[in-house]
Design goal:
Helix 3 packs across helix 9. 63% of the residues lie in helices and 0% in strands. The chain is globular, with a radius of gyration of 18 Å. With 238 residues, it is mainly α.
Length: 238
């Protein structure tokens, strides 16, 4: 393995998985609350990227690797919300990082199927389906029936299909649209998540919605996270 700059990685430079988890604990539980989101963004982004790289180099895809990647996914969704109006912020680059993290998790889930099932797989599958809103190709993912048939997953798929229909033809940079029917489906999805008590998912799904359709389509999005601090959201613990 070689870094993007061409420097070879020495085995002594790699951190074992428990250390990688402690690195994220420090970034999300100490640095972020103390220094704020925007001022730490560049630092945290680079460190989380290297944490994921260290897992990749060591070919780790177990429960701990999943947990760490799931936390990174939630962080990058928050970034798209909090940094979207910051001068110089490249939203498409951040979206690419999020997609890479989601893809890694899809591969982890498939590799560990029958050995370990992450309790967060449904959540991650929903984020993946939403963030790939423009992708109209039919994919045959290794998704367990209990997730594929879950009401939240079914509503997410319906919402995506509606957006693709009313936004056709979809091009790389063409705006996506959502009609009244789509808003009804989205509200039904939020209601299902609310019934399950999953406030983290409601908030993060709203952040993804905002990314595609703008803040004017979500009424007071930050009221959805009242009582939850950012560390809790990133950990999926609220």
């Amino acid at each position: 393995y070689e870094r993007a700059g061409g420097d070879k990685t020495l085995p002594s430079d790699l951190r074992p998985p428990p250390v990688l988890k402690r690195t994220l604990d420090y970034l999300f539980h100490e640095l972020l609350p103390q220094e704020g989101f925007e001022s730490t963004y560049g630092f945290v982004r680079d460190r989380t990227r290297q944490v994921r790289a260290d897992f990749t180099i060591q070919m780790q895809n177990d429960a701990l690797a999943m947990e760490c990647h799931e936390r990174c996914v939630r962080y990058h969704i928050l970034v798209m919300h909090f940094m979207r109006t910051t001068p110089g912020f490249e939203l498409h680059m951040e979206e690419s990082v999020l997609m890479n993290s989601l893809q890694s998790l899809k591969e982890f889930y498939a590799d560990q199927r029958g050995q370990y099932a992450s309790p967060c797989e449904l959540e991650i599958r929903i984020y993946h389906r939403l963030i790939h809103m423009r992708d109209q190709r039919e994919r045959h993912d290794d998704i367990p029936d209990e997730i594929r048939n879950h009401s939240a997953f079914l509503l997410t798929s319906q919402f995506r299909e509606h957006v693709q229909k009313v936004s056709s033809p979809i091009q790389k940079n063409s705006p996506l649209k959502v009609g009244d029917e789509g808003m009804l489906i989205f509200n039904q999805l939020a209601a299902v998540l609310r019934e399950q008590g999953n406030r983290v998912m409601i908030y993060l799904v709203a952040c993804i919605f905002e990314r595609f359709f703008g803040p004017e389509k979500i009424e007071d999005i930050d009221s959805l996270r009242v009582g939850m601090d950012l560390s809790q959201i990133i950990d999926g613990a609220a």
